[in-house]
Amino acid sequence: RPALMNAFELISTSQGLNLGTLFEK
Amino acid sequence: MGCWFSKQLEHTPGYEEPAVLAAETAFTVGEVEALYELFKKISYSIIKDGLIHKEEFQLALFKNSKKHNLFADRVFDLFDIKRNGVIEFGEFVRSLSVFHPNTSQDEKIAFAFRLYDLRSTGFIEREELKELVLALLHESDLYLSDDIVDMIVDQTYKLADTNSDGKIDPIEWKEFVKKNPSLLKIMTLPYLMDITTAFPSFIMNSEVDE
Question: B92 CB near a chain A CB, below 8 Å?
Fold first, then answer.
């Protein structure tokens, strides 16, 4: 059941943690 | 004698020599120089002082300088090692080095722990985890009832807080990440393997004859 997924798994999808966008031109 | 061109270059405040930063981080001298190009681009994007301010960081991350985000705030605060409200070049390179594919898992695990330890208590507390989940839901325009959020947090706590003392300590966190390695995915930026080609303009400005 996706609603009970690991909370850390969930928060690791945050845009704010995706530093890859710093490298986009 | 350096070439006339290099003497005209002015560095950003708090600039540190690439050789020094390369010695301390996972980057080569050439890569640190490429990162300097990126750093300059970001640090002159709004406030033209060669330091990365919060709104410049937000602009680089979200293409929107006014987008507030708890996670981006946390990353900014950890990058701002001196805690003076701005990110200097050395701080930028040292912090990004944690995200290098060659950096040890232990360093990445420790950084992620600090990221989620919102109030720097040395533990990831239940309230902090809930706050992070709520921030993520808000950011994603998702609504879940408080009961469901509590259930998600409780479920995770049951797995991670192995000594059941109501908080996740660094040792429990490390064990938990070892069992769930996908949690560390965000701690590695494949881009960092190839930054000299990502920022080829550096080649034109290079001060180092390699």
Answer: no
- Mean of pLDDT values over B75-97: 97
User: Over 80: is that where the pLDDT of B65 sits?
Assistant: yes
Q: Residue A20: closest CA among chain B residues belongs to which residue?
A: B189
Return the C-alpha torsion angle B96, B101, B102, B106, nearest 10.
80
Tell me whether residues A11 and B132 touch, CB distance under 8 A.
Answer: yes
Q: Which of B75, B144, B148 sits opposite A17 (nearest CB)?
A: B75
Condensed to tens digits (0 to 9), the pLDDT of residues B145-155 reads 999 999 999 99
Q: How many CB atoms lie within 10 A of CB B182?
A: 11
CA nearest B108: which of B191, B193, B183, B187?
B187
A-chain CB neighbours of B139 within 8 Å are 14-16
Least Cα distance to B179 among B163, B162, B164 occurs for B162
pLDDT in the model for residue A2: 47
Q: What pLDDT is attached to residue B196?
A: 76
B5 Cβ under 8 Å from any chain A Cβ = no
Please give the DSSP secondary-structure letter assigned to residue B125: E
Q: Is residue B33 within 8 Å of B208, Cβ to Cβ?
A: yes
Are B124 and B168 within 8 A, CB to CB? yes
By C-alpha distance, which of B104, B89, B96, B111 is closest to B42? Answer: B89
